[in-house]
Design goal:
By secondary structure, this protein is mainly α. It is built from four helices and no strands. The protein has a domain of about 55 residues.
Length: about 100
């Protein structure tokens, strides 16, 4: 019985951000088709497709997805990936004394 409740936590998430996370994880990690995910989570196919599209855009823009935000306080969310600028060498400030 307890295992069934634990399993439902992942297969039948109730909170919106958790549902989005599970849909994206199943699509990108398990490579499950969007139509199957829409049916499993009781969503419209086009809504699931838009969710995947938006997630890809966030990744390309180096923005963390909303389910990684820390709303309870603590450290602010970090970028998911380093930007190209992070790899460039920095010039010393003109006010720096050598």
């Amino acid at each position: 019985m307890a295992d069934r409740l634990c399993q439902c936590f992942f297969t039948e998430p109730r909170q919106t951000l958790h549902r989005r996370y599970e849909i994206l994880r199943a699509h990108f990690v398990e490579q499950r088709p969007l139509q199957a995910l829409a049916e499993q989570f009781g969503m419209n196919y086009y809504s699931v497709r838009a969710l995947v599209r938006d997630f890809r855009a966030q990744c390309q823009a180096h923005q963390p997805p909303p389910f990684l935000s820390n709303r309870a306080g603590g450290d602010p969310p970090r970028r998911m990936l380093p930007s190209r600028r992070d790899h460039r060498s920095r010039r010393p400030s003109p006010t720096t004394v050598s």
